Amino acid sequence: MPSRQNLLGLWLLLTGICLVVGLGVLIWLESALQPSSQTRPVLWVLGLSPALLSLIAGWALERRLFRPLRQFQVLLARLVASPDAQGDYPLDGWLRPLQPDLDHIRDGWRQDRDRIRAAHAQGAEEAERIKQELEALLQVLDLPLLICDRHQRLLLFNPAASEMFHDQPGLGLGRPLSQLLPHPSLADALQHLPEDGTPHQLLLPGEHHWLRCQLRRLGAYHGGALITLQDTTAALEHDQRWRRTLAQLLPRLRGHCGSLNSATEALLQVEDNAEFKQRLENAIEQESQALAGQVEQLTHLVEAHQLSQSSLEETWSNDLCGALKAQLVQQKISLTPVGIPAWMKVDGPALLALLQLLIRQLGLAQQVKTVELEVLLGNRRVYLDLSWPGEPLSEQQLQQWRSLPLFDEPLSPRIEDVLEQHGADLWSLPPQQPGETPRLRLPLPASSRGIQPLQRPTPRPEFHDFSIADLPAPSSDLAGMPLQQLEMVVFDTETTGLDLRRGDKIISLAACRILNGRLLADDAFDQRVNPQRPIPPESTAIHHLTDADVAQSPPIEVVLPRFRHYVGNGVLVAHNAVFDLLALQLSESGENSVFTMPVLDTLLLSRAIDPSLEGHGLDALAERFELSFPPGTRHTALGDARVTAELLLVLLPRLASRGVLTLGDALALQRKIEQEQQG
């Protein structure tokens, strides 16, 4: 159907032609017939009647036919895009008799959809139960794990992996594993994993840590692999220190042993030279003492290495105090915990033995019977303060205590070994004010949980999607890929103004991801940008961002490469993409911030689908398809991007009904609309 503007123009043109022709005929009749006063009104009525009839007919057709037809078009569009949408307005005009048939078709379609949904729900009940059990297992699993398909796209990651890679924008469903772990050795190992599921070990270097990976082929239809990760930086560093020290000790031990052996053999052969015999005995004594010292160092090294095999784990200070109070009952020493409890990252058994030994030594040195244990939360440390009524400890006394063994056993670790394991020390703090008691302070590694009880991170609504494995390989021709299978990144910008070529800059950049026809709820990029220029008040009135809001934000030179990394291999989508894409292109500053991927524009797609309808702005389309902006999100980059993503999802079935099935089809349709607008 022609657009309303074209119909209005044709109607006015036809009415004008009828009016001009009628007036011409009247003027000719006036001059030719010279009508009387009785016949002149009849002639004027006959001459103007075509224009009047055209005016009345156009008005009637608009009210009774064309406007109802446009309403009918909107109803059909809404029915295709959102079959379950409610609040449909009734047909009007000459199409009103079609209302019962339309209601019957619409209700029947919705009933069929309800029955299909019920059948799907019943058939998927068992699968949902298994899925929930899998999710519950992944929530409590502390070992970071990833699952990828044969094309090395992420199908699953658990909260532990999300916590490990919290600062990595490459973590996301469907994203290439190479964006998260860019190691050629990993990609090669995944391609050559044994089919029988035999695990393969791999050590990967990072910027600040080493990751030990265990790779295992999964016997699933997607032919993917399971990857478990472990941060072994601390263990490797300790092992290297231990091996380095051992490598230095062993040659010395061999040298002392060789010297002792040579001196002993010479001493056995010397009997009549007393002076030489005395020199040999002195040499044997010196070598024996040196050997004893080296053996002591080796013993200390073995003790420390045995203790280091225990890993530091999250420990609640109240649990530690409860266990310590029970241990001190036999020594008749009472322990009173004070302060706010906190989480620590410690070797619980070793720390418990250390505190018990320190309190026992306090009891022997000063007859202490009551001790207070206070927990203080610092910036990166948790301070355990032991206080008692008595005298402060001297540094000499603390130095003696550091060498005490924890247990009465051979090769028992010492207090200084536990301190080294935790990167800690012992401090003696004398009273600072009258009424205070002396303290013994022990700084320990703090946990990221701080003073909060143990809580699991909030699970992501989407942290696994095995249907990604059904998508074509990433190397497939994008133009031939179905729209429903594309990875699309829907983005939006907020700027200081609308004149980008004269210096207006981006102040907010946000995006969300559509994967396999679904909008991922928590996979988002949202970053404010410092434009390094003032924001005009008229722009603030729209997006409500002020200079103070973006003052501490990074500049676009920092944000844009991160956004490019977030986009990855996805197809960009925006509403009125010309503006937002120009904002990106004018801000490009290097190879890591160049956007050359295809771009879909929901504004052009909507105009192509409904050329006869007015209003293709984001607000008008959101109202037409019953898409809602959460309060306060309109004219925010992320809020607009998410509504644009929902709009694209409701346009996809309407594009499919018109034969637009692939990315190439959609881009061709956009080019056609652009050419028509330019023409």
UniProtKB/TrEMBL annotation:
The chain crosses the membrane at residues 7-29, 41-61. Pfam families: PAS_4, RNase_T. The keyword Nuclease applies. Residues 487-657 form the Exonuclease domain. Its EC number is 2.7.7.7. CDD domains: DEDDh. One of its GO terms (molecular function) is exonuclease activity. It catalyses: DNA(n) + a 2'-deoxyribonucleoside 5'-triphosphate = DNA(n+1) + diphosphate. Residues 132-198 form the PAS domain. Keywords: Exonuclease, Hydrolase, Membrane, Nuclease, Transmembrane, Transmembrane helix. NCBIfam families: dnaq. PANTHER family: DNA POLYMERASE III SUBUNIT EPSILON. This is DNA-directed DNA polymerase.
